[in-house]
Write a structure and sequence with these properties.
The protein has about 500 residues and is of the alpha/beta class. It is built from 15 helices and 19 strands. The strands form five sheets. A five-stranded antiparallel β-sheet has the order 2-1-5-4-3. A five-stranded mixed β-sheet has the order 7-9-12-14-13. The chain has a five-stranded parallel β-sheet with strand order 16-15-17-18-19, sandwiched between helices.
Length: about 500
Amino acid sequence: MTSLDDTPFREVADTLEEPLFVVDRMWQRHWSNVAGTALLACLPWFAREHEVLPLFDAETRDRLVLEEEVGAAPWRGEGRLSIDSAPVGIVVTPLPGGARPDLRTVRITDGAPARLLEAALSRTRELEGVARLAEVLSHEFAELLTTIGGSAELLASELSPRDAVRADVEAIRHAAARASVLTRELTRAVSTRAAAPQRIDLSHAISTMAGSLRRVIGDRVQVQLSLASEPVPVRLDVSQLEGSVLHLVRNARDAMPSGGTLRIATSSIVLDSPTRAVHSLVAPGRYIRVAVSDDGIGMDAATALRSFDPLFSTRGSEGLGLSLVFGAVTQMGGYVMCDSAPGKGTTMSLLFPQADADGHEPGPAPHPLRSILVVDDEDAVRRIAARTLRRAGYHVMEAANAEDALVLVSADPAAVDLLLTDVLMPGLSGVELAGCVTATRPDIRVLFSSGATASATDETARLPRGAAFLPKPFTPEGLSQRVRALLAE
C-alpha cells in the first residue's frame, strides 16, 4: 500500500519535471512534488496555501469541478493556467495503492507537444488539399497543352520559312513548351507514380531537351552541350530524368546571377574501385554519366553535403530541388556526385548503370504497314496523336473510349500492332482495356499516356511494372520517337 510518507514515492515523484499534486475531493492540497511546489509559488500568497484549483483559469476550474469524479479510471482533459494562460494537459488519477479513497493525484503536462502535433496535422491536411488541387490542375493543363503545342507544331511544319505568320506560330510553340515544363514539374512534385524505365540513349534524351533548357537558363547564361558521339544506353524513366536535369539547370542558373557558362556533358565511364557519391558509395562497374557544370559561386564541403537535405537552400528560402533529384536518381538505380568549391563553380553528376548491349536500336523509319490504335476520350488530343502518327507513315485507327476500341480489336485482333491509350477514361480505364487486348494479343505493344498522377487515382498506380508511359503534355516529335522505339524493340 502506497503512503504519502513513503520515501521511495517522494523520491520518484520529485524527479518528475511535470508538476504533481495529491488532493482530496475538495481539491485541498495534501502534498506536491518539487515541480508542483515551484508552480504554486508563482501564485499570489493568498491563493497558494492549500488550494490547487487557483492554478487554473475560471473555465478550467469549472470543468474540473463539474466533470471530474473520483473513480477507478483516470480523467484526462485540457485547460489553461491562470498564471500565463498557457495550455496544459491535466490527468487526475486515484492514488495508487488506495492509501485513502478520497485522494487522487493531479498531474499537469506540457501542452506544447500536443499543440505542435495538432498544428502539424492541420498543416498536413492543408497540404493534402493543395496536392489534390495540383493533381487535378496538372491533369487538365496536360490535356490542353498537348492540343495547343501539338496543333502549333503541326501547323508550323506546313508553313514556309518566310511565311508571315510563322513567327506567331513559333511564339505559340515556345509558350506551350514552357507551360509544358511547368506542368510536368507540378505533376512530378505531387506524383507517387512508380518509375517506368525504358532503354534510351542518354545523349539523345538530353539533346531533345536543349530548347527547354535554354528557355529555363535565360539570356545571360551560355549553354554548351558536349554529348557523347557513340550511343550511351541506359534504362531510365524519361520523365524523372527530365525533371532531375531541369532542377540542376535551375540551380546552376541561380549560382551565376551575373551570367556565365552552363555545360552539360554525357559520357561513358568505368569505375575500377568504390567511389564516394552523395550519401552512398558507387560500386565498381560501367556507368553512363551526365554532368551539369557551372562557373558560379560554388559551395564549401559542408554546404554541398547539406544541399541535398529537404528544405535546405543557400538562398534563404525553403527548397526541395536537390532532394527531389537525389530521390529520383536513386529510384532509377543511379547515383549523384557533387564537386564544388567556393569561387570555382559546381559540377553535379548523375551516374546510371550502362544498359546491356543487346537489343535493337530504333530504326530510322517505321514500317509502312504498322497499325496503331489511338484511344482517348479527349477528342482534340486524340486527333493530334492520330494526325501525327499518320504523317509518320503509320496506319491509325481511333476510338473515343475503351468499349469502341474493343469492338475494333475484336473485328481483327491481328490488325493492331500498338495500342496507345489514355489511362483515365469514362467506363473501362486504359489499364483495363490493355488487359483485355493483351489477353488475346500478348505480343501487342502498349503505350499508356496520362497527365494524372498516381495519387490522383488508383488506375495510374495499377500500371504494369515497366509499362511504356508517355506523360502529357507531349509533343508530336516526342510521340513519334516513343512509338518508333516501341515498335523497333
